[in-house]
From TrEMBL:
<dbReference type="InterPro" id="IPR050834">
    <property type="entry name" value="Glycosyltransf_2"/>
</dbReference>
<dbReference type="Pfam" id="PF00535">
    <property type="entry name" value="Glycos_transf_2"/>
</dbReference>
<keyword id="KW-0808">Transferase</keyword>
<feature type="domain" description="Glycosyltransferase 2-like">
    <location>
        <begin position="10"/>
        <end position="130"/>
    </location>
</feature>
<dbReference type="Pfam" id="PF02709">
    <property type="entry name" value="Glyco_transf_7C"/>
</dbReference>
<dbReference type="InterPro" id="IPR029044">
    <property type="entry name" value="Nucleotide-diphossugar_trans"/>
</dbReference>
<feature type="domain" description="Galactosyltransferase C-terminal">
    <location>
        <begin position="182"/>
        <end position="226"/>
    </location>
</feature>
<dbReference type="InterPro" id="IPR027791">
    <property type="entry name" value="Galactosyl_T_C"/>
</dbReference>
<protein>
    <submittedName>
        <fullName>Glycosyltransferase family 2 protein</fullName>
    </submittedName>
</protein>
<dbReference type="InterPro" id="IPR001173">
    <property type="entry name" value="Glyco_trans_2-like"/>
</dbReference>
Amino acid sequence: MTSAATVSVSVIVNTYNWPEALKLSLQSLAGQTENCFEIIVADDGSRPDTADVVKAFAGSSSVPVKHVWHEDVGFRRAAILNKAIGEACGSYLIFIDGDCILQPDFVAQHRALARLNHLVTGSRILLGQEYSRQLLAAGTWDYQVFRRNILRHRLKGDISKIVAFFVRLPWRPMSDYRCFVWRRIKGCNLACWKSDALSVGGFDETFTGWGSEDIDFVFRLQDRGIIRRAGTWATEVLHIWHKPTDPSRAAANEKVVLDRIEAARLRKKAA
Protein backbone atom coordinates (compact mmCIF):
# COMPACT_ATOMS: atom_id res chain seq x y z
CA MET A 1 0.00 0.00 0.00
CA THR A 2 1.33 3.44 -0.91
CA SER A 3 1.97 5.70 2.09
CA ALA A 4 -0.02 8.95 1.91
CA ALA A 5 3.03 10.88 3.08
CA THR A 6 5.07 9.76 0.08
CA VAL A 7 2.51 10.70 -2.58
CA SER A 8 3.51 13.66 -4.78
CA VAL A 9 0.45 15.80 -5.52
CA SER A 10 -0.49 18.20 -8.30
CA VAL A 11 -3.58 20.36 -7.78
CA ILE A 12 -5.03 21.28 -11.18
CA VAL A 13 -7.21 24.40 -11.12
CA ASN A 14 -9.43 24.84 -14.17
CA THR A 15 -10.36 28.44 -15.01
CA TYR A 16 -11.77 30.68 -17.72
CA ASN A 17 -12.08 34.48 -17.61
CA TRP A 18 -12.94 34.85 -13.94
CA PRO A 19 -9.79 36.17 -12.27
CA GLU A 20 -11.70 37.48 -9.24
CA ALA A 21 -12.86 33.96 -8.35
CA LEU A 22 -9.51 32.41 -9.21
CA LYS A 23 -7.80 34.81 -6.81
CA LEU A 24 -9.93 33.50 -3.91
CA SER A 25 -9.37 29.89 -4.95
CA LEU A 26 -5.61 30.37 -5.02
CA GLN A 27 -5.67 32.12 -1.65
CA SER A 28 -7.41 29.08 -0.18
CA LEU A 29 -4.68 26.86 -1.63
CA ALA A 30 -2.09 29.07 0.04
CA GLY A 31 -3.84 28.43 3.36
CA GLN A 32 -3.59 24.64 3.28
CA THR A 33 -2.38 22.79 6.36
CA GLU A 34 0.34 21.23 4.24
CA ASN A 35 2.40 22.61 1.39
CA CYS A 36 3.85 19.50 -0.25
CA PHE A 37 2.10 19.92 -3.59
CA GLU A 38 2.24 21.94 -6.77
CA ILE A 39 -0.47 24.09 -8.37
CA ILE A 40 -1.22 24.01 -12.09
CA VAL A 41 -3.70 26.59 -13.38
CA ALA A 42 -5.39 25.05 -16.42
CA ASP A 43 -6.57 28.11 -18.34
CA ASP A 44 -9.07 27.55 -21.16
CA GLY A 45 -8.05 30.68 -23.08
CA SER A 46 -8.63 33.50 -20.58
CA ARG A 47 -7.68 37.13 -21.17
CA PRO A 48 -4.35 38.46 -19.83
CA ASP A 49 -5.86 39.57 -16.50
CA THR A 50 -6.02 35.91 -15.44
CA ALA A 51 -2.31 35.49 -16.18
CA ASP A 52 -1.68 38.59 -14.05
CA VAL A 53 -3.46 36.97 -11.10
CA VAL A 54 -1.46 33.76 -11.49
CA LYS A 55 1.85 35.62 -11.81
CA ALA A 56 1.17 37.73 -8.71
CA PHE A 57 0.18 34.67 -6.69
CA ALA A 58 3.18 32.66 -7.87
CA GLY A 59 5.49 35.45 -6.74
CA SER A 60 4.47 34.98 -3.11
CA SER A 61 3.53 31.30 -3.09
CA SER A 62 5.42 28.79 -0.97
CA VAL A 63 4.49 26.01 -3.42
CA PRO A 64 5.36 25.76 -7.13
CA VAL A 65 2.81 27.32 -9.51
CA LYS A 66 2.46 26.67 -13.24
CA HIS A 67 0.12 28.36 -15.72
CA VAL A 68 -0.89 26.36 -18.80
CA TRP A 69 -2.96 28.17 -21.40
CA HIS A 70 -4.29 27.66 -24.89
CA GLU A 71 -6.09 29.90 -27.34
CA ASP A 72 -9.78 30.60 -26.78
CA VAL A 73 -11.63 28.92 -29.63
CA GLY A 74 -14.64 27.83 -27.60
CA PHE A 75 -15.25 25.57 -24.60
CA ARG A 76 -12.26 23.20 -24.51
CA ARG A 77 -12.09 22.26 -20.85
CA ALA A 78 -11.07 18.67 -21.62
CA ALA A 79 -8.16 19.79 -23.79
CA ILE A 80 -6.69 22.21 -21.25
CA LEU A 81 -7.07 19.66 -18.45
CA ASN A 82 -5.17 17.14 -20.56
CA LYS A 83 -2.45 19.71 -21.16
CA ALA A 84 -2.23 20.28 -17.40
CA ILE A 85 -2.04 16.53 -16.77
CA GLY A 86 0.91 16.37 -19.15
CA GLU A 87 2.66 19.18 -17.24
CA ALA A 88 1.99 17.67 -13.80
CA CYS A 89 5.00 16.53 -11.77
CA GLY A 90 2.80 14.86 -9.17
CA SER A 91 1.91 11.20 -9.36
CA TYR A 92 -1.51 12.03 -7.85
CA LEU A 93 -3.82 14.64 -9.39
CA ILE A 94 -6.51 16.67 -7.63
CA PHE A 95 -8.86 18.56 -9.96
CA ILE A 96 -10.75 21.64 -8.81
CA ASP A 97 -12.42 24.56 -10.55
CA GLY A 98 -11.22 28.13 -10.20
CA ASP A 99 -14.58 29.18 -8.78
CA CYS A 100 -14.12 26.97 -5.71
CA ILE A 101 -12.69 27.89 -2.31
CA LEU A 102 -11.03 25.11 -0.35
CA GLN A 103 -11.08 24.32 3.34
CA PRO A 104 -7.60 24.29 4.92
CA ASP A 105 -7.40 20.48 5.15
CA PHE A 106 -8.59 19.87 1.58
CA VAL A 107 -5.26 18.64 0.16
CA ALA A 108 -4.45 16.70 3.35
CA GLN A 109 -7.81 14.94 3.23
CA HIS A 110 -7.38 14.01 -0.42
CA ARG A 111 -3.87 12.76 0.29
CA ALA A 112 -5.22 10.59 3.12
CA LEU A 113 -7.87 9.09 0.81
CA ALA A 114 -5.40 8.27 -1.97
CA ARG A 115 -4.93 4.56 -2.60
CA LEU A 116 -3.56 2.70 -5.60
CA ASN A 117 -6.22 1.58 -8.09
CA HIS A 118 -8.70 4.14 -6.71
CA LEU A 119 -10.10 7.52 -7.72
CA VAL A 120 -11.90 9.94 -5.40
CA THR A 121 -14.99 12.01 -6.08
CA GLY A 122 -15.74 14.77 -3.59
CA SER A 123 -18.65 17.12 -3.09
CA ARG A 124 -19.36 20.82 -2.75
CA ILE A 125 -21.09 23.39 -0.56
CA LEU A 126 -22.91 26.08 -2.49
CA LEU A 127 -22.37 29.74 -1.59
CA GLY A 128 -25.29 32.15 -1.89
CA GLN A 129 -25.42 34.81 -4.57
CA GLU A 130 -25.10 37.82 -2.27
CA TYR A 131 -22.37 36.29 -0.13
CA SER A 132 -20.46 35.33 -3.28
CA ARG A 133 -20.74 38.91 -4.50
CA GLN A 134 -19.34 40.20 -1.20
CA LEU A 135 -16.39 37.81 -1.28
CA LEU A 136 -15.52 38.67 -4.87
CA ALA A 137 -15.76 42.40 -4.15
CA ALA A 138 -13.50 42.09 -1.09
CA GLY A 139 -10.97 40.00 -3.01
CA THR A 140 -9.74 38.23 0.11
CA TRP A 141 -10.49 34.93 1.79
CA ASP A 142 -10.00 34.31 5.50
CA TYR A 143 -11.17 30.86 6.60
CA GLN A 144 -10.91 31.63 10.31
CA VAL A 145 -13.19 34.66 10.01
CA PHE A 146 -15.61 32.60 7.93
CA ARG A 147 -15.58 29.75 10.44
CA ARG A 148 -16.27 32.03 13.41
CA ASN A 149 -19.40 33.28 11.66
CA ILE A 150 -20.50 29.98 10.14
CA LEU A 151 -23.80 29.67 12.00
CA ARG A 152 -24.80 33.17 10.91
CA HIS A 153 -23.84 32.31 7.34
CA ARG A 154 -26.07 29.24 7.44
CA LEU A 155 -29.02 31.13 8.90
CA LYS A 156 -28.67 33.82 6.22
CA GLY A 157 -28.49 31.26 3.43
CA ASP A 158 -24.87 32.11 2.59
CA ILE A 159 -23.99 28.38 2.57
CA SER A 160 -26.10 25.39 1.55
CA LYS A 161 -25.10 23.11 4.45
CA ILE A 162 -23.17 23.28 7.68
CA VAL A 163 -22.62 19.80 9.14
CA ALA A 164 -19.76 19.09 6.72
CA PHE A 165 -17.69 21.77 8.46
CA PHE A 166 -17.84 19.91 11.75
CA VAL A 167 -17.84 16.25 10.70
CA ARG A 168 -14.99 14.40 9.04
CA LEU A 169 -15.93 10.80 8.35
CA PRO A 170 -13.00 8.46 7.75
CA TRP A 171 -12.93 6.13 4.79
CA ARG A 172 -15.05 3.01 5.17
CA PRO A 173 -15.47 0.05 2.78
CA MET A 174 -19.03 1.19 2.17
CA SER A 175 -17.57 4.42 0.78
CA ASP A 176 -16.38 2.60 -2.34
CA TYR A 177 -18.48 2.30 -5.49
CA ARG A 178 -17.84 -1.14 -6.95
CA CYS A 179 -19.81 -0.29 -10.09
CA PHE A 180 -20.42 2.94 -11.97
CA VAL A 181 -22.95 5.35 -10.45
CA TRP A 182 -23.85 8.53 -12.33
CA ARG A 183 -24.70 10.71 -9.36
CA ARG A 184 -22.36 12.81 -7.23
CA ILE A 185 -19.58 13.21 -9.77
CA LYS A 186 -18.27 16.77 -9.59
CA GLY A 187 -15.40 17.86 -11.79
CA CYS A 188 -14.70 20.63 -9.29
CA ASN A 189 -13.60 18.01 -6.73
CA LEU A 190 -12.05 14.93 -8.26
CA ALA A 191 -8.77 13.06 -7.78
CA CYS A 192 -6.93 10.18 -9.42
CA TRP A 193 -3.47 8.87 -10.19
CA LYS A 194 -1.74 10.46 -13.15
CA SER A 195 -0.88 7.03 -14.54
CA ASP A 196 -4.56 6.04 -14.46
CA ALA A 197 -5.61 9.28 -16.18
CA LEU A 198 -3.06 8.65 -18.93
CA SER A 199 -4.10 5.02 -19.27
CA VAL A 200 -7.59 6.07 -20.42
CA GLY A 201 -6.32 8.90 -22.61
CA GLY A 202 -7.29 11.66 -20.19
CA PHE A 203 -10.47 13.64 -20.72
CA ASP A 204 -12.25 13.12 -24.04
CA GLU A 205 -11.51 16.20 -26.13
CA THR A 206 -14.26 15.38 -28.63
CA PHE A 207 -16.86 16.65 -26.14
CA THR A 208 -18.05 20.07 -27.30
CA GLY A 209 -19.60 22.57 -24.91
CA TRP A 210 -20.37 22.07 -21.24
CA GLY A 211 -21.61 18.83 -19.77
CA SER A 212 -20.65 15.26 -18.81
CA GLU A 213 -16.94 15.30 -19.70
CA ASP A 214 -16.15 14.64 -16.02
CA ILE A 215 -18.73 11.87 -15.77
CA ASP A 216 -17.32 10.27 -18.91
CA PHE A 217 -13.80 10.45 -17.46
CA VAL A 218 -14.87 8.71 -14.24
CA PHE A 219 -16.83 6.08 -16.17
CA ARG A 220 -13.84 5.21 -18.36
CA LEU A 221 -11.60 4.95 -15.30
CA GLN A 222 -14.06 2.62 -13.58
CA ASP A 223 -14.56 0.63 -16.76
CA ARG A 224 -10.81 0.02 -16.67
CA GLY A 225 -11.11 -1.39 -13.15
CA ILE A 226 -10.33 1.68 -11.04
CA ILE A 227 -12.45 1.77 -7.87
CA ARG A 228 -14.32 4.98 -7.11
CA ARG A 229 -13.99 6.18 -3.54
CA ALA A 230 -16.40 8.73 -2.05
CA GLY A 231 -14.76 11.82 -0.59
CA THR A 232 -18.06 13.18 0.74
CA TRP A 233 -17.81 14.51 4.31
CA ALA A 234 -14.05 14.83 3.90
CA THR A 235 -13.20 17.11 0.98
CA GLU A 236 -16.08 19.54 0.40
CA VAL A 237 -15.25 22.69 -1.57
CA LEU A 238 -17.10 26.00 -1.35
CA HIS A 239 -18.59 26.77 -4.76
CA ILE A 240 -18.93 30.46 -5.61
CA TRP A 241 -22.31 31.33 -7.09
CA HIS A 242 -22.48 32.08 -10.80
CA LYS A 243 -25.09 32.13 -13.53
CA PRO A 244 -25.86 28.72 -15.05
CA THR A 245 -23.50 27.57 -17.80
CA ASP A 246 -24.85 27.28 -21.33
CA PRO A 247 -26.53 23.83 -21.36
CA SER A 248 -27.11 23.62 -25.11
CA ARG A 249 -24.69 20.69 -25.55
CA ALA A 250 -25.54 18.91 -22.29
CA ALA A 251 -28.05 16.44 -23.74
CA ALA A 252 -25.81 15.45 -26.65
CA ASN A 253 -22.82 14.98 -24.33
CA GLU A 254 -24.90 12.94 -21.93
CA LYS A 255 -25.95 10.65 -24.77
CA VAL A 256 -22.31 9.96 -25.59
CA VAL A 257 -21.76 8.74 -22.03
CA LEU A 258 -24.96 6.68 -22.01
CA ASP A 259 -23.95 5.02 -25.28
CA ARG A 260 -20.55 4.15 -23.83
CA ILE A 261 -22.13 2.70 -20.71
CA GLU A 262 -24.42 0.53 -22.83
CA ALA A 263 -21.55 -0.57 -25.07
CA ALA A 264 -19.54 -1.60 -21.99
CA ARG A 265 -22.52 -3.53 -20.62
CA LEU A 266 -22.93 -5.45 -23.87
CA ARG A 267 -19.19 -6.12 -24.04
CA LYS A 268 -19.12 -7.59 -20.55
CA LYS A 269 -22.27 -9.60 -21.19
CA ALA A 270 -20.70 -11.14 -24.28
CA ALA A 271 -17.40 -11.91 -22.51
